[in-house]
Amino acid sequence: MLHKCPICKTPTDSTEHGDFPFCGERCRDRDLGNWATEKYVVSEPIFNEDDGDEIAASRETIILELDEPNAAGH
Ligand SMILES: [Zn+2]
Hints:
Elements: E1 2-4, E2 11-13, H1 25-36, H2 47-73
Antiparallel strand pairs: 1-2
Bound molecules: zinc ion (ZN).
Residues 5, 7-8, 10, 22-23, 27 line the site of zinc ion.
């Protein structure tokens, strides 16, 4: 099976290259290095941030409700 090294685009052969689809150990390591660095970093889920906003919003509502009796007492 013929393929191209994803790093340097050198034609590779699955029967000849032990590091297939990479042309060699160096390119395979380079790809692994890419995964370890920011190149392929998966962004953190943002739903946690949304949850925080919701909690802050509900907390604000509670404070407003607590303020109301004081205003009525005047
Ligand atoms: Zn290569």
